[in-house]
Amino acid sequence: MNAPLPRLAITLGEPAGIGPELVAELARSDIAADLIAVGDANLLQAAARSRGIELHLVADDGQPIAGRQPGSLRLVAVDLAADVVPGQLDKANAGYVLSTLARACDGCLAGEFDAVVTAPVQKSIINDAGIPFSGHTEYFALRAGSDVVMMLVANDLRVALATTHLPLSAVPAAITRASLETTLRIVQRDLLGKFAIAQPRILVLGLNPHAGEGGHLGREEIDIIEPLLRDLRGEGLQLTGPLPADTAFLPSHLAKADAVLAMYHDQGLPVLKALGFGHAVNITLGLPFIRTSVDHGTALDLAGKGVAEAGSLIAATRLALDLALRRRAAD
Ligand SMILES: NC(=O)C1=CN([C@@H]2O[C@H](COP(=O)(O)OP(=O)(O)OC[C@H]3O[C@@H](n4cnc5c(N)ncnc54)[C@H](O)[C@@H]3O)[C@@H](O)[C@H]2O)C=CC1
Ligand SMILES: NCC(=O)COP(=O)(O)O
């Protein structure tokens, strides 16, 4: 038998969103991985039919395979709690969504899967169901017991975030020397290990306009960011900044950086999405397993219409496969 294909768990995401149909679309790709959908079989087949896809679903028996036919997926079944109408959220299915994430996460931790690729979830409906939830990133971090960093990748641009899903008013207090140091060490380690960048160059943004304007527009740069960068440079990390965020993404700066660390979600991601939406990938750094995801949300406005683009899910799956193969070669 040829080398067994890496086993990638693919969670279907919010059942009323575009996730299930994009996973059906992913099945048609020629990606050389054992793609194992985690979710409801009838939901996935209905989503496939909505796009005219003939999907061959086989129960996952855990045995390695050496090849996969385009149009086929294996399945770890997690059953819906309630019927689904595309585009219509139902909090009765919030527990189902979390069960798919738990199953994939535990499978990765146990070595059953080489990676997990997640289709988008609707964070609000999970909260509406009374379950505190701010995102896959935080969920997997808690379940795996790891400090993590969210990073999105589009071509050569990598944007990591010092904070993730927080109200803007909570951001300054969340940027402490300790949290920032943990973040920078994770980014450094995973650029080295996961992305094989020998001497990562990280460009760090300031928090305030004009990176604080010498303390006149905020002191986080002077009190927290600059002293930490100075100390880490002393250890050999190649860190530039804190730079004013409004000009940090100019090509002249990006040419000298392997990654940009933004202080908060909407400081870094609009730039990345403006440049790469549709083929960018979200990766969680710091986990003991590989997790990638799409660059978009549940797009309820498009669900069931057969028009949502699968480019980002396909890119996320290709990146998960590349990282799994690199990890396998290193073991
Ligand atoms: N990885 C994840 O689980 C993510 C989940 N979300 C969640 O998704 C929900 C909706 O978020 P929004 O801010 O509305 O963002 P969204 O990405 O769902 O939609 C923004 C716009 O992009 C379009 N769009 C999104 N994906 C597309 C695709 N594959 N092909 C073509 N057009 C596409 C939508 O039609 C809409 O016009 C929220 O609950 C959010 O938390 C958002 C981002 C990532
Ligand atoms: N904007 C990125 C995003 O919301 C993805 O979050 P997560 O669910 O992957 O943690």
Automatic annotation (TrEMBL):
Keywords assigned: Cobalt, Cytoplasm, Magnesium, Metal-binding, NAD, NADP, Oxidoreductase, Pyridoxine biosynthesis, Zinc
The record's free-text note on cofactor binding: Binds 1 divalent metal cation per subunit. Can use ions such as Zn(2+), Mg(2+) or Co(2+).
GO molecular function list: 4-hydroxythreonine-4-phosphate dehydrogenase activity; cobalt ion binding; magnesium ion binding; NAD binding; zinc ion binding
Domain of life where this protein originates: Bacteria
Catalytic class of the enzyme: oxidoreductase
EC number(s) from the headed UniProt entry: 1.1.1.262
Positions that bind substrate: 136-137, 273, 282, 291
Catalytic activity annotation: 4-(phosphooxy)-L-threonine + NAD(+) = 3-amino-2-oxopropyl phosphate + CO2 + NADH
Subcellular compartments: Cytoplasm
A Pfam family it matches: PdxA
Pathway: Cofactor biosynthesis; pyridoxine 5'-phosphate biosynthesis; pyridoxine 5'-phosphate from D-erythrose 4-phosphate: step 4/5
A GO BP annotation: pyridoxine biosynthetic process
Further details from the record: The active site is located at the dimer interface.
Subunit structure as annotated in this protein's UniProt entry: Homodimer.
UniProt similarity note: Belongs to the PdxA family.
Name of this chain's protein: 4-hydroxythreonine-4-phosphate dehydrogenase
